[in-house]
Structure formats: C-alpha cells, structure tokens
Amino acid sequence: MTDAGTTAAVAGYGGVRAAVVGTGLIGGSILLRLREAGLDVTAWDPDPATRDQARGRGVPAPETVEAAVAGRDLIFLGGPLPTLPAFLPRIAGAGGPDCVLTDVGSTKAEVAEAAARHGLLDRFVPGHPMAGAESAGLAAAVPTLLEGAAWVLCPGPGAATAPFRWLTGLLLAVFGARVVPLTADEHDRAAALASHVPHLLAGALAGATQRTAAPDAVLTLAAGSYRDGTRVAATPAVRTVNMLLGNREQVLRELGGVQAYLEDLAQALRSGDTERLTALYDEAGATRALLTNRAYTDRVREFRADGDHTREVGWLREVGAAGGYLADCQVRGGGVRYVARLPHLVGP
C-alpha cells in the first residue's frame, strides 16, 4: 500500500467507524483495506456463509444489517446492482441521520435517483471504484485490489458537498485513490465504453470461439492478445448481465460506435486498402498509448467552505469531464483546497 494509505490514522480518519454492506469482491476488498488501515469496521452480507468468512478474517459481522450499520460514521453499500436502490433507504434509516453513505455499483443514475426520492442527497455520495477481477466473492477479495484506483464520486451542491469532501479525503488517505468527480449521467456514459462494452466484446470473442469449427485448436494457440481480450468473459454471468442492463441505453449507444469502427476496419480489409487499415490502427494505437503515457498538470483551487458550493461543484465536474482526478482535498478553517491533476487545462 502507498504511503498515503499507511498514514490514514494521522490523516484524521483513524477514528472513523465504518460498515460495508455487501461483501463480494469489491465490498470485501474495501472491508479488508479499512481494517488493515486501523479503522473500526463491521461487515454484513445477506449470505450467512459470507458473514462467517468475514468473522474468520477478523471482522465483526452481525446477523442483521441494522446491527452492522448502527452508530457508524460511514457505510459502503455493495451487492447486486439491481438491489441497491431499494436497499439504500433501509441502511440510511438504520445508520442514523449523520452517517455518510456511498455505494460501489457500476452504474450511478438509478441509485442517485433513488437517493433523491428518499431525501438522502445531503449525505449520499454515489461512488464507483474502477477496479475488479473476473473472480467473485469475499474469498477473492484482497486489501490491495483498489490501491491507486480511479474512484468516481458524484459531487452535489448545498448540503451534499461536505460529505463529498470528507469521503474524498478518506479515499485519498486510505486507498491512495484517484478521485474522479463526475455527475451520475457522465459516469454512466464514460463507464459504458471504459468498462461495460469491453464485457460485450470479451463475451463475443469467447462465445464465437465456442461456435467455430475448431475451438480446441483456437484455445491451444491462444496467447496474450486472446487472453487479455477475453479475461472479463470469465466474470460471473449474473454480475455482467446486471451491469449491462443497468446501463443499457448508454451501452448500446457506445456499442454502435465500436461497431462502426469495426466495420471501417473490415471494409479496409475487404478492399485490401493497406493505407486505410494502417491509418485506423495508428489511430487506435495512439489512443491505447495514452493509458500509460498521458502527461498531467497540477491545478490548485480553493473555495469557501460554506455557501451553496455551486462554483465548487461546477469546477469539480469540469475536472472529471476533462479526464482529470483529485490528488488532494483539505478542509481547513473557512476554506477547502483541492489539487487536481488534468491531462489538459480547464477554465479557471
């Protein structure tokens, strides 16, 4: 874990009492990291065997969710994506009026709408850590899974801004996260191409292999490109289906763009157009290189800690929409100071 993560207590979060509801791969990894960082953390999962696993790993796991979240300062909500909107008000009521709530679901619009319906926008911060694996369950969870991950949080104006700041600071301190501030809709649009469509492509490649004339020969020859391209096809199917259906409109829109580019490649191949095919792959390769070669510029902004925070939230959303992330968030005296890292400059 990074130095930032190992100094969580001195960063002011050592006394936080947290709960993780839904302790699969992501929730379980959050749980284990919080415990490793020295926070007082409890767990709850609807599966009794999973609760037993949590106890076996040294984490208190009461029999009821109400007991798990009572008196907590912070609750992470995980579990199957379709259950989150209905489960949110239940844990909010059991956790008390001052408890900060966040989730780890792979889509944001639906759960954000549920929070609005139930009057929870003053303390619910929609979230999504961008990490995972094809494995599932608490048995597969590790405290390092989310180290340094891009972690989307959705900031809101007014009373919602203070919980966003506090949670941002905790994620930076405990996980060394790169906090990406986005609206729920912006998250769902970006995640469709960054995460959800790749599951469709992986499934298509692995599925087509099964239907080819010689699948065993294909698998024998499969090397890095095939293994990388099909890795997430091994994700539990129910989890993938929930994700795709939960963001269906955005996924289908972005899939259309992928299909169009694939057709451009196919047309250049059919016509033997070496120049066009090379140009398309040069374009694709340049984008792929940006995953590791983007240069970032630090930008520091300060805002008043009080008020309705409209300017602050607007700037935060600009940072996320520009591909940037927060590297620091400090609330001191009457102000809040952010350090954002941007791949290009946004307005002042």
TrEMBL record:
InterPro entries: 6-PGluconate_DH-like_C_sf (IPR008927), NAD(P)-bd_dom_sf (IPR036291), PDH_C (IPR046825), PDH_N (IPR046826), Preph/Arog_dehydrog (IPR050812), Prephen_DH (IPR003099). One of its GO terms (biological process) is tyrosine biosynthetic process. GO terms for molecular function: NAD+ binding; prephenate dehydrogenase (NAD+) activity; prephenate dehydrogenase (NADP+) activity. Pfam families: PDH_C, PDH_N. It comes from the Bacteria. Keywords: Oxidoreductase. Residues 16-299 form the Prephenate/arogenate dehydrogenase domain. PROSITE patterns: PDH_ADH. PANTHER family: PREPHENATE DEHYDROGENASE, PREPHENATE DEHYDROGENASE [NADP(+)]. Belongs to the prephenate/arogenate dehydrogenase family. This is Prephenate dehydrogenase. It comes from Salinispora arenicola.
